[in-house]
Amino acid sequence: MNLRDLDYLVAAADTEHFGRAAERCHVSQPTLSGQIRKLEDTLGVALFERSHRSVALTDAGREIAAHARRILEEVDQLQSRALSRQDPLSGDIRIGIIPTLCAYLLPHVLPELHQRFPDLHPILFEETTSRLLERLRNHEIDAALVATQHDIDGLSETVLFDEPLWVALPPEHPRAAQASIDPVELGNMPLLLLAEGHCLADRVREICPLPPRTGRTADLRATSLETLLQLVSAGQGVTLVPELAVEHSRSAGSRLHFSRLSTDDGFRQIRLIHRRSSSRLAALEAIGKAIQDAVPNYP
Predict the structure, then answer these.
(1) What is the pLDDT of residues 167-180, one digit of tens each?
(2) CA 275: distance to chain centroid?
């Protein structure tokens, strides 16, 4: 048994066809089917049920193919790790990003990273802060971009930039003409929040007094900023939006009005967090600098 045999097995499992699997592996069909037959003989179980037109995994084949896929992924990571030790700015690097940042930051950052480090391959995960911290502790990712401080043993963090928060209002709102709004004023408005687990919702609670619910507004805890903005556009309330999302909304032709928060702490801090023992510290430092250079210079 060798890694090539596992490649053949996974390709046949994915395509359910020895001919298409052989094309994907750049070998002849007799070569691929012969090696899979040898693999079955080695393991002592049938991996596929064969017919004239197609093949289908047996129960044993499904389980073994899943295990083979994990082995091949581990080998890819091993090779990437070895390459990164030769050149810290090459190979795969796994970075988690919170949802309220991911879609708005990546268009600024990915071209910058590609230009500076063409041999570096970022693998990105969009998840909530708690899930990213769990992945970080389990060595499933190398670093995470979050917007809250975490004093956790074994982890280190770097503040990359402060991102201002803006108030999003429907264009017909009586406060829409104001260039800035005091957080206290928001106490008299239906303030829409993201669902529990999103650190932006926690930051909004720190800055603004929560208004009482009214009968005419939906009691919704949204999971995306875009949903909140649609609700604001429908006149269901107001919400706080990070600067990068404001830029995105304006460039998309949004009719919403955005007002600054008239308070010194009306921002969130974007941080890069990683394990202190990470072998990718040089790459993470370079990525942090590239992010700082790529994002707008907020006052």
Answers:
(1) 999 988 988 888 99
(2) 18
